[in-house]
């Protein structure tokens, strides 16, 4: 059986990073759920390692090999986890720039779990007013539960009005797993290019 591919994108800037930690926990929870029925491959992409390549790509239009490989991993994934720190009430510039260099049709129909980290819970609204619209514009299938982790969320069980971080991770990961099972990855861009009929052949078909 072909393994399901889960890719997590982390836009954390520091090392260690709470953003990377959240990406790892979401990826592992999703892997554990999917592994009950099928083999699973998980990859985490650290955008901080690709920052220079992303900037060069925005200017030149050509991705360096490491960035091209990361883009291919994202576009060919069966399920995507996108995690960013929140700066000034929105996703980070590095996070947005990475998705700017991906073709805006490449994520069509792809299951996506959105998540973010920030200093206080006040930043959690950015998931709904910034991140969800971004992936809706890209025509991805965004799971209902978005996961935000403020500094005080780590190691807590929530309160009478909210679930703890572990519960939110489990719920969102289960939603991503369910969507991933129902929506296998589309054919990769490179495979689609190989299937295009050459222009000369199309012209020949029109001649009497």
TrEMBL record:
Q: Respond yes or no to whether keyword Transport is given for this record.
A: no
The answer to keyword Transmembrane helix applying to this record is: no
Q: What Pfam families does the entry give?
A: FMN_red (PF03358)
An example Gene Ontology molecular-function term: oxidoreductase activity
| Span of domain NADPH-dependent FMN reductase-like | 5-154
Could you list this entry's UniProt keywords, alphabetically sorted: Flavoprotein, FMN, Oxidoreductase
Name used for this protein in its record: Oxidoreductase
């Amino acid at each position: 059986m072909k393994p399901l591919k889960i890719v997590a994108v982390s836009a954390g800037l520091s090392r260690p990073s709470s953003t990377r930690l959240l990406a790892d926990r979401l990826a592992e929870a999703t892997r554990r759920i999917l592994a009950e029925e099928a083999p699973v491959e998980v990859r985490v992409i650290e955008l901080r390692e690709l920052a220079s390549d992303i900037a060069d790509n925005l200017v030149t239009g050509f991705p360096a090999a490491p960035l091209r490989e990361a883009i291919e991993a994202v576009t060919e994934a069966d399920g995507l986890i996108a995690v960013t720190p929140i700066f000034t009430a929105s996703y980070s510039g590095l996070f947005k720039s990475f998705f700017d260099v991906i073709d805006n049709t490449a994520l069509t129909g792809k299951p996506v779990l959105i998540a973010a980290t920030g200093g206080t819970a006040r930043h959690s609204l950015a998931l709904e007013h910034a991140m969800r619209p971004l992936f809706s514009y890209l025509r991805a299938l965004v799971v209902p539960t978005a996961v935000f982790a403020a500094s005080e969320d780590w190691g807590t069980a929530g309160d009478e009005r909210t679930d703890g971080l572990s519960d939110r991770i489990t719920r969102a990961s289960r939603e991503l797993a369910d969507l991933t099972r129902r929506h296998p990855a589309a054919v990769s861009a490179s495979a689609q290019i190989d299937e295009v009929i050459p222009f000369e052949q199309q012209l020949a078909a029109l001649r009497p």
